[in-house]
Amino acid sequence: MGSKIEKTIARLQSRIEEGQFYEAHQQLRVVSARYVKQENWSAAIDILFSGAKSLLEAGQGGSGGDLCLILVDVYGKSGALPDSENKGKLLTLLRLFDPEEPSRKKFITVMIEWSMKYGDFPAGDPELHHVAGLLYAEEHDAYEAERHLVLGTKDSAEVLAHLEYEWYQEDDSHTAPLYAARAVIPYLLLGNLRDANRSFQSFTNRLRKSNASLAIQEINSVGHDLRLYPSLPLLNFLGLLLLTVQDGRAELYRELKTHYSSHLREAGILSDSLEQIGETYFGIQIPRQTNPLLDMMGSLFGGAGSSAPPAKSKRVQFPDAHQMDLD
């Protein structure tokens, strides 16, 4: 950072400390815009980061949030990559936001979009998702937390399981499997068996520790240890589902769904997800709705106007359970 930029930052910092928030905000916008026009990206980034940080620390969420959004825009214009330094600046600012500040959600959205465009992860950088999800979880905003944690790091699985367990404790005891499913099924739908297992183990560990009277049946076999809960059949289904996905045999999956069909119908929330899991992991195609009129026209005119054929299923291959790193 050059001495001229340091002096500019110090001058504007003094104005913020004196309570001249509006003036400091406007000057920060003007100065950073000048550096952007000159394509002096590092200077623009330093000024925006420092100014946003100072304003957020002073409780000026609107002005600070505005500079945060401009900072991400400059990242994009300069082609900045989501490396540790650039992400570190964004995460530092994110943690300074008041939870009630409206611009925070927009800031999270644009920084994820930036990482999608310039990073290696099509759904956004896992570390950014993890921190956003963690903040939402700490604020008990379960739905927003879930959206980010399932796309986060390996540490996110335990945070998600903890969130779902805390949510479950506000409900009836027999609903535990429904909350466990919220911590497991999204990972499976994303092809992330490792974190589906992590999340399930974390949830059930807390369940056992918090319920000393809960009946548990231990089943030990070569390569697999399984705990069954006689009073919670859908929780057993989830544990067996994870083992079946690792095994990869479609007939076992069909048998599992048949065995628990009455419980699944009663729950009434997993049917679409289980169809997708069947197609993704076991090659069981989801029935496609067809248009009878278009099908008839297709048969008459040699395919013209016929319904599109079912898309080929995408089957995810996983290594043997003994090769999985589930630590």
Fold topology:
Layout: H1 3-17, H2 21-37, H3 41-57, H4 61-78, H5 84-96, H6 103-118, H7 126-138, H8 142-149, H9 156-168, H10 176-189, H11 193-210, E1 217-221, E2 224-228, H12 233-247, H13 250-259, H14 261-267, H15 271-282, H16 292-300
Antiparallel strand pairs: 1-2
Helix pairs in contact: 1-2, 1-3, 2-3, 2-4, 3-4, 3-5, 4-6, 5-7, 7-8, 7-9, 8-9, 9-10, 9-11, 10-11, 10-12, 11-12, 12-13
Describe the fold and architecture.
This protein has 327 residues and is mainly α. It has helices at residues 3-17, 21-37, 41-57, 61-78, 84-96, 103-118, 126-138, 142-149, 156-168, 176-189, 193-210, 233-247, 250-259, 261-267, 271-282, 292-300; strands at 217-221, 224-228. Strands 1-2 form a two-stranded antiparallel sheet. Strand 1 and strand 2 (224-228) form a beta hairpin. Helix 3 (41-57) runs parallel beside helix 5, helix 10 (176-189) runs antiparallel to helix 11 (193-210) and helix 12 (233-247) runs antiparallel to helix 13 (250-259). The two termini are 42 Å apart. 36% of the residues are buried.
Q: Portion of residues in helices? A: 55-70%
Task: State the major sheet.
Answer: 2 strands, antiparallel
- Overall structural class, as computed from helix and strand content, comes to mainly alpha
Please give the number of β-strands: 2
Assembly classification: single chain
Written as H for each helix and E for each strand, in order along the chain, the element string is HHHHHHHHHHHEEHHHHH
Q: Poorly predicted ranges (pLDDT <50, ≥5 residues)? A: 301-327
Anisotropy-based shape: elongated
Into which percentage range does the β-strand content fall? under 5%
Overall mean pLDDT: 89
Rg on CA atoms, Å: 26 Å
The neighbouring-strand order within the major sheet is: 1-2
Please give the alpha-carbon distance between the first and last residues: 42 Å
Number of helices, counting only DSSP H or I runs of 4 residues or more: 16
